[in-house]
Amino acid sequence: MTQHIELGKQGEEYAGQYLISNGYRIIETNWRVGKLEIDIIAQKYDFLSFVEVKTRSTNHFGYPEEAITRAKMINLLKAAEKYIEKSGLDIGFRFEVIALTKTSDNTFELEHFDEAFDSNTVHGAAYVRW
User: Fold this and answer.
1) Burial of 53 (0-12, 13-18, 19+ CB in 10 A)
2) Contacts of 104 (CB under 8 A, 6+ apart)
3) What is the mean pLDDT of the chain?
4) Order of strands across the sheet with 36-44?
5) Any residues with CB less than 8 A from the CB of 44 and at least 6 apart, and which?
6) N or C: which end of the chain has fewer CB within 10 A?
7) Beta strands 25-33 and 47-56: pairing type?
8) How far apart are CA 123 and CA 121, in angstroms?
9) Is 108 within 8 Å of 102 (Cβ atoms)?
10) Cα angle at 57 between 52 and 18, to 5 degrees?
11) Half-sphere exposure of 67 toward its Cβ, with a 13 Å CA cutoff?
């Protein structure tokens, strides 16, 4: 497995454990529909969280969350809509981002954006939390 894929896998596992320790219930990981993917689908209280995990080995070229483009947000929104449609759930949802940077002691520095963006952001509004 290539180094960046392995790092991404480690980051997603770390993010999942972080969410669990903060009261989330993991419903799905790496959920796919067609070419679309959601890293983590979790539930806390009465809403679903669609979580994008971005992991980097260094912040030298920018922070992990900066890699989430408008195109990525659009794909996440499409995937979330498909998930809700397929699951038949009638529940509120939000988009979250967990940004991880590997540290010198082989753990991760974590930044959690629990309401990172919404459908208005995707469709042209300027609000993104980072």
Assistant:
1) buried
2) none
3) 90
4) 25-33, 36-44, 47-56, 92-102, 108-117
5) 22, 23, 24, 25
6) N
7) unpaired
8) 5
9) yes
10) 45
11) 15
Overall CATH class of domain 3-122? alpha beta
Q: Which amino acid is at 71?
A: A
The pair phi, psi for residue 60, each rounded to 5°, is: -55, -35
Q: Quick check: helix, strand or coil at residue 48?
A: strand
pLDDT at 34 over 70: yes
Our CA dihedral for 1, 30, 25, 89, rounded to 10 degrees, sits at -170
> pLDDT tier at 87 (50, 70, 90 boundaries)?
very high
* b/e 87-113 (16+ beta carbons within 10 angstroms → b): eeeeeebbbbbbbbbbeeeeebebbeb
Please provide residue 125's backbone torsions phi and psi, each rounded to the nearest 5 degrees: -70, 160
Report the predicted TM-score, pTM, of the whole model to 2 decimal places. 0.90
